[in-house]
Amino acid sequence: MAVTLGISDWALENLIDMEASIPYVYDDGDGTWPKRRLSSFSTIGYPSIGVGHRIYPQEQERFRPYLAGGRDLPDDEIESLLREDIEKRAAALLRPQITAPITQSMWDAIVTQAFNTGPSTSTLKKVIASINSGDYLGAQTALANGAVTSKGKVVDGLVKRRAYEASLFMDDGIPGAGGGGIPRWAWVSGISISALLVLWGAIRVRRAWVNRKQAKQLTTRREEVEDEDRDDRRQPQPSDLPDDVERIVVRGPRGITSDKSGRPQREGAPQRR
Fold this sequence. Notes:
Lysozyme, 3-stranded antiparallel sheet, 2 domains, single chain
């Protein structure tokens, strides 16, 4: 089965947040942050723009307006450029290698990691091999074990990113399980995997139930507040009462009394007749 998916809008927005978007030409290899705006395409590393788009010599005229003294690249063009880069740098290379069914969230997780680490890592080879053999949990585990170091040091941001990608991978569930069918790998792997499927389904049902309950509680509370507001508006105000209303004084706490009109009065205060 050929994969025809592209990255979802939601995953694209998250990728932009993780990678950072820079709307002008900058040097990706000068070791500075925040990146300064370049006045020319002469750099230590590569001249770049947007979400890590490398500007090749044949593209310099296209991006010249975004050098120092120029304007910023609009957000919609940054997103469009990123989609092109994902397709060229990751999707087009990975798509033909996947022969088993996958969900949108699985594809989003794979290309998100591939954009960061490159599409030819040993991690992604394990992910794809697991998918093709029907071991989706194994693919998720492999994805979680992706690179988390840079120059020999563990990077907290990469640790969080690998956890996000692994979680995203199973966000849409497992192909074949949603419609009541158990995929082939569940039968082969034994009862423990089938039990995990049941648990996963129960968690999703529970989550949906909690969301509905919370929404109902919010609606009920909102209706109660609206009813209280309407009752308050119906109560006569002191200024609306005629002067000859008979008043019955009732002693309340802390020396505060109220009369028949419901208007509070302090003890010893003169009573209107």
